[in-house]
Design a protein that fits this description.
Largest sheet: 3 strands, antiparallel
CATH class: Alpha Beta
Shape: globular
Number of helices: 2
Radius of gyration: 14 Å
Number of strands: 3
Distance between the termini: 17 Å
CATH architecture: Roll
Order of helices and strands: EEHEH
Strand order of the largest sheet: 2-1-3
Length: about 90
């Protein structure tokens, strides 16, 4: 039997360039792998700010514990019985 994969909380810090301005971000994302967390970040920032992937620069990715989470939505997802669909 397959064991259910465990969800990890990642904090991704970086910056993005939009026109001639530079903005910074710190985003907490729930994902199974670091690669999935990166793809989700690119997707969210790209859709909200009309950015291309080459405009987004990731400075660091860290695994954080539940006590370090500051995003209320992420905290609610992790502490509830919510299941994240598995991409295959």
């Amino acid at each position: 039997m397959n064991a259910e994969p465990s969800v990890t909380i990642y904090r991704i810090v970086g910056n993005f360039r939009k026109r001639k301005e530079i903005g910074s971000f710190s985003k907490e994302i729930c994902a199974l792998t670091e690669e999935q967390a990166k793809r989700k970040l690119y997707s969210e920032l790209g859709s909200r700010n009309r950015l291309k992937r080459h405009q987004i620069k990731i400075e660091s990715i860290h695994i954080i514990s539940l006590e370090e989470v500051t995003d209320p939505l992420v905290k609610k997802i992790i502490t509830s019985d919510f299941k994240i669909p598995i991409e295959e």
